[in-house]
Design a protein that fits this description.
The protein is α/β, with parallel strands linked by helices and about 300 residues long. The chain folds into 2 domains: about 160 residues, Rossmann fold, CATH 3.40.50.720; about 140 residues, N-(1-d-carboxylethyl)-l-norvaline Dehydrogenase, domain 2, CATH 1.10.1040.10. It is about 50% helix and about 10% strand. Helix 1 crosses helix 8 and helix 3 packs across helix 4.
Length: about 300
């Protein structure tokens, strides 16, 4: 099967490489031709435009920063797409935007499916990745073998837009929890200074509580507790885009989003400080500053030991 892939960045590059290693005949494109080097070396074919990808492939996948980029690429491909083709967008996108693009493509007999992913760069590299798909179920099932070369957890969610809704719920939940944990831990560390209790003792203790046993606090281990925000695992600019899309979806359906909008404000302040290229968890530093310069830090070596207990 001839598979097209557009967008070979942090996530897309790994996903596309797994696709070609999985036995698909891949044709690839990116704004940066050098990004396609590993894919071409693995057997993929380079295409010099999105249109060339659409002309060559039976199914096209995009992995792009957001709605603006997806609309631009879809617009470049639409006129040359033909009945029977399918277009899967792996980006974190707006449900409204994917439905609008899907309606235009449907006029040409092309099926669009929104298929955002979750698992981070490491999941994209290893294939331990969720893909949440919205769109025509028969089309999903037709191309499920291709999805399985990219992901160990492809799942059909519902009609077009459903995948994007699931992704926004997932990402928004994580960033709202992150905002709350920054507040709780700065309080605990600052109050603990008088009692001789540090961040390690607090984190180690709460991991054994009811909430901790669900591993809620382990999300702090990789970036926040060791104070590692550069280079990013997931850039703040992209994370803020995801939360903005979720807030917009709430407004579209008249859903009050107080905590979500507070989280977006935190991210916006961090971006305005020039942190857009830092890890998305760098927003938690704002709360440390507001708490009077409290630092919630644990020795990375101790973090590893505690996680193994």
């Amino acid at each position: 099967m001839k598979v097209g892939f557009i967008g070979l960045g942090t996530m897309g590059g790994h996903i596309a490489l797994n696709a070609v290693r999985g036995g698909n005949e891949l044709v690839v494109h990116d704004l940066n031709e050098e990004a396609a080097g590993p894919h071409v070396n693995a057997g993929a074919t380079w295409a010099d435009s999105p249109r060339a990808v659409a002309e060559a492939a039976e199914v096209i996948f995009t992995s792009l920063p957001g709605p603006v980029e997806v609309e631009a690429v879809a617009g470049a491909m639409t006129e040359c797409m033909r009945a029977g083709q399918a277009f899967f967008d792996l980006s974190t996108n707006s449900p409204t935007v994917v439905r609008e693009i899907g309606a235009r493509l449907a006029e040409r007999g092309v099926a669009m499916l929104d298929a955002p992913v979750s698992g981070g760069p490491e999941g994209a590299r290893t294939g331990k990745l969720a893909i949440w798909v919205g769109g025509d179920k028969e089309t999903y099932e037709r191309f499920l073998p291709v999805l399985r070369t990219m992901s160990d957890q492809p799942a059909y969610v519902g009609p077009l837009g459903a995948g994007s809704i699931a992704k926004l719920v997932h990402n928004l939940s994580g960033y709202m929890v992150q905002t709350a944990l920054a507040e709780a831990f700065t309080m605990g560390v600052k109050a603990g200074e008088e009692a001789g209790v540090d961040a390690e003792a607090i984190w180690r203790a709460v991991r054994q509580g009811a909430l901790g046993r669900r591993r809620t606090f382990d999300m702090l281990a990789k970036n926040y507790l060791p104070g590692r925000f550069d280079p990013p695992d997931f850039a703040l600019a992209l994370a803020r885009k995801d939360v903005r899309l979720a807030c917009e979806l709430g407004r579209e359906f008249d859903v009050p989003m107080r905590i979500a909008n507070l989280t977006l404000q935190e991210m916006t302040e961090a971006v305005n400080r020039g942190w857009e290229g830092r890890d998305s968890r760098s927003t938690m530093l704002l709360q440390e500053e507001r708490a009077g310069g409290v630092e919630v830090r644990v020795d990375p070596a101790r973090i590893g030991e505690i996680l193994e207990e």
